[in-house]
Structure formats: structure tokens, C-alpha cells
Amino acid sequence: MKREKAAKILRAALFLLLLIFVLKNASFLLAPKTAERKYRRFFSEKAGFDVLFTGISLTMVGVYPMELYDEYGLTSFNMGESGCRPQAAYWALKMALDDCDPSLVVIDVRRMDLTEKTLPEYARHTLDAFPLSLTKCRAAFDLYEDFADRMSMIFPIVSYHYRWSELEKSDFRVNAYRLDNGARHYMGDDLRVAQVKTYPVVPADDARPPEEVSAAYLKKMIELCRSRGISVMLQELPCPLPEDDQRYANGVQAVADEYGVPYLNLYHEDMINYGTDFANAKHMNDSGARKSTHAIGAFIRDHFDIPDRRDDPSYSDWNGQLEKYMDFKKDRLKSQKKADVFLMLLRDARFDTGIRISANAGCLSDGKLMELVRNIAGEELPLLEKAIAGGEEYRAYIRGADGTAAESLRGDPVQLAPSDADWQKGSSAEPPAGEMDICVFDARTGEPVLEKSF
């Protein structure tokens, strides 16, 4: 009898294991591969990441890990995802720390207004990429009250069974991943320069405490990192925030003070141009994202002791990835047909820009385009103002690394310093091919990247 009972138990256990195996693999097959592609490099990176970013879509499109590596040598992964809430970020972070041992976790503090814990369906994508584990089961039972919702999170096949008829080759073998370590770059028609609505700035001392659910999970993330000896930093990215949202952002300072962690509230920094730096009403485009990323990298450098990995042989594959990333940026720049998007993308430390605008060109009276020209340098361009006022031919050469600009009017040669040669294209006496001619150079090598006329 004992043997028969043991055999039944064994058969039941084997059946259960087989069922879990089938459900797990069927779930992977049927689930959309967006999250899988996002996290593929995270799970395959052998040397590990020194910095992890958590947050919603503002983080996903507003922090560029490869820019952090290029400028500061920081190896990071962007876990930001559309619709992510603090409770989802907490569980995603908890699962991520099973595979990664970062030195720093940067917690984005958007959505401090939550009064309910349950996640909307679309916000669950944050967790779909992580494999089945005890932690994932605990997350499902914490986030959902309904048993079907819990099973849907543990075994995504419950939600995605309908996709049998939609399967493609890419569902069977996922061999691509986001180039920029979890961050998302806008492409196609989504890559644009939007004119956004802004709101009156609320003083930093006009604060509203985070709501109970948001505060609880924010504190749980801080305490989770503390328990593992991981440093923590809080951040608020620039965004056109209504007054109440600003008060919530200001209220996070009390949580930061309670735990003694740094809080970088970029909303109060004078660094974003709402006429050039947004792709839509809420999300930054590349120009805004690079400004934010630069500020975050500088803050990390000044407040945390995290090594520069650029010359570390263990991280040599990052240099190869950086080359691919640069090729991606150059190819995307070459494909642009809209002058405003093209100019926006030139706000980049890796590009030097030569601009020539013909006399009496119509673009001189286009306020948006002229603001984008100023944005490349990040400073006022005095001779550009004279060209706009008088309709004179204008030339400039702008160094991307520091915004240093040399200007001229009426076709005079452009020089950055006595030792510098005239700008190769701008010093030519040949008439412009269009109203605005632009020559782009690699800022590190000086090699031409492309020429464009509008």
C-alpha cells in the first residue's frame, strides 16, 4: 500500500511539473514579445549593471543608458514601462534583483497619487518578461484579489490564448532586443517636436504627501534596496505637470528626508525647453531625454561612488554596443525628412553641426525652427538674431560637446578659434542648395556624417 501511495504521489508530482512546463512555455509563445525584447539584454548581460532605473513611460523615453555609458561610463538598465505603477515597479525590481546586483537603484516618483493597488491590464507588461518564480507568484497574489487575474499573471496564456491565430516567426524565436538597454526611442511619425501645454510652477515648499498606496510601495523599494546594501536615489523627470501633480512631486522630499536618500527633482531645474524637448503632451523627445540623462549622470557622479567602466575589460562588449548605438543614431538622422525633427536630433554631444541659411530665407521667420537652431547650442546665438531681423545670410558651427558656437553673417568664413580651419562646407563661396543647408560631423573624429538641405 505504501508503494502504491508513493507511486500515486510521484505520478501526481510529475504531472504537475509537466503541466507547469507546458503552461510556462505556452505562455512564452503566446505572450506579446515587447517585454521579452526589452529585457533580453538584461538577462543576457554577463558583467551586470551598476545602475537600475524604475518608473513609468516618462522614464522609458526619458533616460538613455547608452548616453550614460558614453558620457560617464555608467552601465545601466532602464526598467521604465508604459503604465507602470509603484506597486508593479516594486515587484519588478524585486524579481530583477534575483538576477542582478546593482550598486544603485534610481526610483522614479511619478504616480504618487494612487489610492488603489490593483493594476490595470496594460500596466502588467512590466512583469510579463520575468520568468515564473516564487517571487512572481507572490506578486500576483499581492496585486490582484481575483483568482483568474492572479493566474493570468503567473501564466500569461490565460490572457493571451487568443493569439494562436496571430503567431508569427518572431514569436517562436526572439533574437532581437532594444538597443538602448530598455529605453525606447521614438521612431517614424512618433518622432516629433510637439508644442505642449505648460502649467504655473508650484514652489517646492508647496507639497502634498504621497497617497497611502504610492507611499507604501515607494518605501518598500527603498527598504528592499537597503536590505541588500544597494544605494537609492529618487528622481522626478521634467514633464508639463498640473499643479496637484507638482505638489505630489514636492511631497516626495519628505520621504527622501525620512530615509536619507538623495532626491533629484528635475522639474525645478532650468534645463528643459518646452518648445523643443517634447514629442507629445507628456513625453520628452531625444533632445529632452539627452538633457535629462546628462543631468542624472552628473548627479550620480557627484553623489555616488560608481566606477567608470569604459576602460574595464570585463565590460568590453559595451563599447561594441556603443558603436551600434552610434550607427543607429546616424542612420535615423539620415532618414529624417522634416526640418524640425532633424534639428531636434542635433542636440547631441556626439555631433558637431554646421548651418548655413540663405539671405531672406523663409525659415528665418519660422520661430519654431529658429528655436530648434538655438537649442542645438543650448545658448543664445546673437548673430542669428541679427540675421532674423535683417534677412541676412547666416552661418554657424556648433560643437555638440559643449555648445560652443561660432557665427558669421553675409557669407563670412566661420572659425571656432584662430587655430581652427574654416568650416569645410560653410566657408565655401558656393550658394546654398536650399534655404537651410546643414552639415553634420562626428564630434570625436571630425568625419562628415551627412549633409541635408531644407
Task: Give an overview in words.
This protein folds into three domains: 1-30; 31-325, Rossmann fold, CATH 3.40.50.1110; 336-453, no CATH class. It is elongated and about 100 Å long. The longest helix is centred in the N-terminal third of the chain and has 29 residues, at 2-30. α5 packs parallel to α11 (212-227) and α15 runs parallel beside α16. Mean pLDDT is 85; it is low at 161-165, 417-422 and 424-429. The chain is built from 17 helices and ten strands. With 454 residues, the protein is of the alpha/beta class. The protein is 42% helix and 11% strand. The strands form two sheets. The protein has a five-stranded parallel β-sheet with strand order 2-1-3-4-5, with helices on both faces. A five-stranded antiparallel β-sheet has the order 8-7-6-9-10, covered by helices on one side. 39% of the residues are buried.
